[in-house]
Amino acid sequence: MVIKEGLYPDEVTAGAVLSGCTLMGFRGLLEGKSVHRFLAKNGWQLKVQLGTILVDMYAKCGSISSALQMFDLMQGRNVMTWTVLICGMARLGYGTEALSMFETMQKERVRPNEVTFTGIIHACADARLVAAGRRFFEMIEECGLEPRIQHYGFMVDLYGKVGMVEEAYDVTRTMKLKPNVIVWTSFLSACKERRKVEMAERVIEQVLSDVKPENDDGVYSLISYMYALDRNWNDAERVWKLILRDHPP
C-alpha cells in the first residue's frame, strides 16, 4: 500500500485494500501481509471489523496459521469473525480444526448464522464425518434458520464421498429448494465414482430439464459418461450432441 506524503488511509480504505488481496487468493498473501505490517507499525487497533477482514484475508490466501494468530490477537469478535475462520479452515482441508473451532464458538455462546453452517458442513464433507454433518444440518432449523442450497449441496457431497448414494438421492428428492447444478454435479459424481448407473438414471431426465449445456456442460458430461457405463450408446451420443451444439469446436 503506497502512502503519499500527508495522505493516510482510514479503516474503510485499509479494509478495501485487504479485501482486494483476499480476491487474489494465494497471490495476494504478500500484499496482504504488507498492509498488515503498515497497520501494526502505525499503531492501528485490531477492532472487530478490520480484524475480521484480516482473518478472512489470511484464511482465503492460504495461511491458516496467520489467520489463527490474527484471531487470537483481536480485541473483540463477532459471528462473522468466527465464520470466516471456520469457512477458511474448511476450504483448506482443516475439517477437524474447523469442528473444534465451532465447538468453542458454541461454548462462548456466539449464535451461528447460515454461512457458519455452510462452512461447518463443508468441513464435515471434506473430513467424511457423516454423523457430525447430519447433526449440524439439523441444527440449522433448531437455530431458527432455513437451509440454503449450499447446505444441501454439501450434504449430497458428504453422502457421496462415503458411498451413501441412496442417502444423497434422498436429499435431492426431499430438499425444500430446487436442486441446482452444484447439487446435481455432486450427486452424479457420486454415482460415477460408485458406478451406480441405476441411481443416476433416476434423476437424469430432471437434470436435463433443469440444467442446460450452455450453463454447465460438466453435468452433461457426467450424464453421457453414466449412459456409456450402461452401454447406452445412443443416449450417450445424444447428450454429447447437445454439448457440441452449444459449444461448437
TrEMBL record:
Positions annotated as PPR repeat: 78-112, 113-147
An individual GO BP term: RNA modification
Keywords: Repeat
Key word Cell cycle present: no
Residues spanning the membrane: none
Pfam families registered for this protein in UniProt: PPR, PPR_2
InterPro entries xrefs: PPR_At4g14850-like_plant (IPR046960), PPR_rpt (IPR002885), TPR-like_helical_dom_sf (IPR011990)
Gene3D superfamilies: Tetratricopeptide repeat domain (1.25.40.10)
PROSITE patterns linked: PPR
GO molecular function: RNA binding
Protein name as it appears in the record: Pentatricopeptide repeat-containing protein
Species name: Ficus carica
Lineage summary: Eukaryota, Viridiplantae, Streptophyta, Embryophyta, Tracheophyta
